[in-house]
Amino acid sequence: MIILRTWRGIADHFPARVTEWLMIWPAFGMGLALTGQPEMFQTSPSFAVLASWADERTWATLVLTCAAARAVALVVNGTFDAFRHSPILRGISALVAIVFWSQFCLGLLMAAVYAGGSWSGPVIYSTAVLAEIINVFRSWSDVGRTRPR
């Protein structure tokens, strides 16, 4: 019964949360890439600045935590009526993802400007930041709808 209820909760809210579900993939994928290729930052000058801030393992831990927290928030979102805090959790997840992706993007941008890195990274990862800004707006707009009057 709980599996059906959870599935129904996800399915009912999926169209409105599609960008949030979608952004789990790059977070999870990047975490796997950083974990599976612990020398990734040595492969290109594009990663020079990111490597100076933290190693691949630290970045992987951060982004995988973002992906897991978002997945939990989305699963409980609307599935359990007694838990009215899921829009807040979704909003916090999106804010944390903005911080992560903006720092990742900034590191790639700085490497492109100062270390001969590729310009493709800042273009792609700035798109992730923009998607997360939309997710913050959507989740915080849901906070008012779920609060008792």
Could you characterize the architecture of this molecule?
This protein has about 150 residues and is mainly alpha-helical. It has one domain. The protein has helices spanning about 1-20, 25-35, 50-55, 55-75, 85-115, 120-145. Helix 2 (about 25-35) runs antiparallel to helix 4 (about 55-75). The longest helix is centred in the last third of the chain and has 29 residues, at about 85-115. The chain is elongated, with a radius of gyration of 17 Å. The two termini are about 30 Å apart. The relative contact order is 0.16.
Helix content: over 70%
SSE order, as H and E?
HHHHHH
Number of strands: 0
Taking all Cα atoms into account, the compactness measure Rg is: 17 Å
Q: What share of residues are in beta strands?
A: under 5%
Structural class, please? mainly alpha
How far the N terminus sits from the C terminus, by CA atoms, comes to 31 Å
Main sheet properties: none
Basic shape: elongated
Domain count: 1
Classify the oligomer. single chain
| Total number of helices | 6
Mean of residue pLDDT? Answer: 88
Low-confidence stretches are none
Could you give a quick summary of the protein structure above?
The chain is an all-alpha fold and 149 residues long.
Helix and strand arrangement:
Blueprint: H1 2-22, H2 24-36, H3 48-53, H4 56-76, H5 86-114, H6 120-146
Helix pairs in contact: 1-4, 2-4, 4-5, 5-6
